[in-house]
Structure formats: C-alpha cells, structure tokens
Write a structure and sequence with these properties.
The structure is a homodimer.
Chain A (H helix, E strand, L loop, with lengths): L11 H21 L6 H8 L3 H7 L7 H22 L3 H16 L3 H11 L14 H16 L7 H4 L2 H17 L7 H20 L3 H19 L1
Helix pairs in contact in A: 1-2, 2-3, 4-5, 4-6, 4-7, 5-7, 5-10, 7-9
Chain A binds a DNA duplex through helix 1 and helix 3.
Chain lengths: ~230, ~230
DNA sequence: GTCTATAGTGGGATAGAC
DNA sequence: GTCTATCCCACTATAGAC
C-alpha cells in the first residue's frame, strides 16, 4: 500500500472535500494541462473556495502527489503479473520497466511537473528525501524480486547491490521518458527493450575474473559512499 | 566561448548593461535565494528599469541560463589547465570532473533551485532543450578532448560515442552533487575519485572479445535511439 | 537599437474572521 | 474547515526619450 505522506484526513467530511479537490484537479489537468489550470478553476470545479483548496494542498504542486501515489500503486500491481509469469532475468527486468511505462503513460505531462518538484533537494517529494523512504523502499523491493525470482547468476558481492542499482536504472529510464517527445514514447520503449538484455549480459559477465576487479571496485565505492 | 543562445548584444553599451543585470541577479540569488529575489530587485540592483531587464532576459529563468553559461565558461578554462598537464585518461577525466566541482562549489545551494527549474522538460534551462544545444555541444567537446588527448585505447565503435557518454556521466555526477549535503560535498569528491579509474578500466576492457559484444549492442542502441 | 516610467493583469499563495 | 479579502510578484503593455 503506497501512501505518499499526505496526512490522512480525520473526518469523513474532510475526506470528501479532499476527494472533490483532487478529482476536480485531475479532470482539469487532463483537459487543459497543468500550467493552464489555475487553482481558482480547480476550487470552482470542486465547489470550494480558493482558500479551502489551499487548506488541503499547500501548493499546486502538492496536487501532483496524488498522481505519483497512483502510479506507484499501479506499477506494483502490473509488475507482480510479470514477475509471476517470467523467470528469465532479462524478461523480468524488461517487463517491470515496461510495466512502469504502461502505467505512467497517461501521466507523462505531469511527470515533468513532478520531476520539477522532485529535483529540488530540500523538497519532501524528492525521491531521495526521508519522506520518500517508504515508496523508495517499495520500488527497490520490486527489483529485489526481479533478481531473486530469476535465473540470474551474478558475482556475489554485486547481488546485494543489484536491486538498488536497478532502481537507479529505472530512475534513468524515467528521466529519459520524461524528456521523450516521440509519439507514444516509442524511443523509451526502444531503450528498455535494448537495455534489459544488455544489463543481463553485463550482470552475467561479472563472474569472469577479468571483470570481477571492476565489480569489486564498484561495490567498494558504493559502500564508501553509503558510509560517508 | 560560451554563448548561451542569448542573442549576442550588438553594442558595447548593451553588453555592459547585460552584464550589470546578470551580475546583480547572481549577487541577489546568492544572498537571498532564487525564489525570494524579485525581478524588480534585480533591476534596481543593476540600476536599470524593470522593462529593460526584460528587454535582455525574457524571463526570470533565462537569467539562470546566463549564470549557467558563466559556470560553463569557467569550467572550460579550468579544464583546459588539466588537459594541458595530464595525458593519462583516468587523470584527465577525474581532473575535468573535479574542475566542475571546484567551479560550481560556491553555487551549490543555489544549484538546487536551478535544478528545480531545469528539470522540467519544457524549460529552456533543461540540458536537453534546443536553447541549451550550444552549451551542451561545448561540454561534449570538452570530453572529446579528454578522450582524444589521452592514452586511452578503446574499441573503435565506442570511441566516437565516448564523449557524449562521458557528458552523461557528468550529468549524473552533477545530480549526485546537487543532493550531496556532506560538508564541502566531500561525498561527490569521493564519487569522482572512484568513478574515474573505474571508467578507465571499463573502457580499456571494451577491447576484450568477451566484452566487445555488449559494447556493440550499446553502440547499436545509441544509434537506434538517435535515429528515432 | 537601448532605455525609462508607469500602469496594468493574472494567478499562486496567505491572513484572519467566522 | 471554510470563507472572503488581500498580498505579492512574474510578466505585459504602452508611450515616449535618446
């Protein structure tokens, strides 16, 4: 269950108002886009005053959180289907990444806005912030499943780091996707389809003696950074 | 020479005014932060009218772009010192990345705000935007020098792609740096010191027959993506 | 082409009464 | 929790000086 650190409203009435605002926002965002939708219009559409809208969402950007939580939830669901079906590592990785693209597709425009928010280090919405620790852990756990349920043989030192590295890979894919203006984000699909088998090959290669040295360096660096 | 696609001012007087505005903005941004610095205050500080400030910079964001251009300029200068001294690839890479950290250090806190605005795909500040094409090419050219002036032997197919990949690496380092709250951004230093020799080892490894397959896949993928 | 002065508008965000 | 009234500021418009 993904709750994105929005405080749970106390009374049923509050919940209802909150819902009305979120729904109105989603509707208007979809129709007219984020920038051209004003907080005043959202409040009107929801049948509340402007001030009241701000009582529930302390900024326009906070409304985007609603989308984010939705996507995370749906991604976990879609990914679990893939993970139940596939055992080959490359297929599992490709499937989970693709699932993200499927789920997030309708929200591509808002992803940009969300990124804008997330990019600020001090923001609680940042994927690296303490407030995001829960959702982040969930995503990493997803990639732990990708590895553990698979046929992948990989250098032992790397195996424990892999889920977090794959999560980072997803962040990279998402970044690419956010900037992908091709129709249907076709280019990101190409990226995922190409990257998954490549990561598979690379990962298996880590057991070769020549390559293992670099892997040890990498793992060592990760540990140092985590400590520091 | 870094011209950030801002139209080059024709007269010396114009250049002077432009400079005054940028300088004032940088000063105020550093003192009070981006959000709390108004365009009026910038215009006042620069001794020009508000309208004149907008004559030179069509939005507040465009001012940041000018700042970014300054950092790029200084980076190019600092990097050229390193490139004149070192021939070993790892040292050149580490030096150029470190030079960026040196140059950008005074602005680290401000960089968060910058990133917030740059992260949005539609923003002209985005490193992938058409407006940033010039600076982007210059940065990539810097990494072309890193490769070409070095002792690096690398799979031929990869050699041409390497500058752009190294530029991407820098983007990653910058991202890490923006989030790095350790004093003096010590952790990012550690990252750079660790990553440079690792990239060196990896790059040399690409000539091994086992590894070359993956490299070809990578290069193929890059070409596909670029075409698409 | 460079610059000033002034007077807007729109919309995000807030204060404080109820 | 909800409102109304208001603030603030990015940005625009205009008209005119040199």
């Amino acid at each position: 269950m993904t709750t994105v650190s929005e405080p749970a409203p106390r009374t049923p009435k509050a919940e209802q108002t909150r819902r009305a605002i979120v729904d109105a926002a989603m509707r208007l965002f979809r129709e007219g886009g984020y920038d051209r939708t004003t907080m005043r219009a959202i409040a009107d559409e929801a049948g509340v005053s402007l001030g009241n809208a701000y009582y529930y969402f302390s900024s326009k950007e906070h409304l985007i959180q609603a989308y984010y939580g939705l996507v995370l939830e749906q991604h976990a669901a879609a990914a679990s289907v893939v993970l139940a079906e596939e055992t080959a590592f490359a297929a599992r990785l490709r499937g989970v990444l693709s699932a993200w693209l499927d789920v997030a597709a309708p929200y591509q425009e808002f992803a940009g806005k969300f990124f804008k928010n997330a990019a600020e280090p001090s923001s609680p919405l940042s994927p690296f912030s303490p407030e995001s620790a829960g959702p982040r852990e969930e995503s990493i756990a997803l990639y732990r499943q990708v590895v553990e349920g698979s046929d992948l043989k990989v250098a032992k030192a790397l195996r424990e780091e892999l889920p977090e590295l794959l999560w980072l890979l997803q962040m990279g894919v998402v970044l690419f996707w956010v900037y992908d203006a091709s129709e249907g984000q076709r280019r990101t699909r190409t990226l995922v389809d190409g990257v998954a088998p490549m990561v598979d090959r690379l990962a298996r290669m880590t057991r070769l003696p020549v390559v293992r040295g670099v892997v040890d360096d990498l793992v060592g660096l990760l540990h140092t950074l985590r400590a520091g």
